[in-house]
Amino acid sequence: MTAFMTPPAIDAPLPRAEFEARLRAIGDARYHDKHPFHDRLHSGQCSMTEVQAWVINRWHYQSSIPMKDAAFMSRCRDPDLRRAWRSRIDDHDGGPESGGGIRRWLKLAEGVGLDPEYVASGAGVMPATRFAVDAYVRFVRDEPLIAAMASSLTEMFAPAIHTRRIDGLLEHYSFANPETVSYFRHRLTEAPKDVRFTLDWVLTHAVTRADQEAAIAALTFKTDVLWAQLDALWNGYVEGRIPPGAWQPGEGQAR
Fold this sequence. Notes:
GO terms for molecular function: pyrroloquinoline-quinone synthase activity. By secondary structure, the chain is mostly helical. It has one domain (48-238): Heme oxygenase-like (Heme Oxygenase, Chain A). 67% of the residues lie in helices and 0% in strands. It has helices at residues 16-30, 36-42, 48-73, 79-93, 101-111, 116-121, 127-142, 145-150, 158-172, 182-205, 209-238.
């Protein structure tokens, strides 16, 4: 290095392409598509008890997403940002009478033999699931906007797992049909739309190295939230260590 050249500052912002690559690498290393429960589910190895437990516990996550997004919007002073984010709530809640990911998830619940009212009540959700999901909602409510937005970027990695899930469920389980897998089909178009906006916003507005590292940490945190839910599910219903207060096989069956 010549005398007139100075080394780059340690805290210099990453170039945009390198920042994006760091974000995407989190999915390669940590996204929950690599959890053994998903291999078990998609290959037809899950018992109906395990499938029902997954549907019940994943409901707490699904039903909390629009609450998370509403909490985020309550902090946004930019009306353009609010307008862009509002579609996420519409995607999950749907209209007054029909549509929405929440209703589609309850169709899946009905398809696997559960009472949708029981599932929607949240009864039987494992403590670890509730703890992880509620921590995510609090994170989005309380952390700086860049971190809060970056935490949603697990959607970058979701279409591949949804495609495998649709194929695996239809191949291996009698409950699977176009209606019961419709939640996942809709996410194939909804998630990429959300990613395009959110990724560009984060890459554009994280202008300091500290902002970039906060975004990277936030996305890492979100992968931990997803992974923890599956660890709890595996421990409870594959290994047979169901925690107190959690759903017991045979409860909440469709009437």
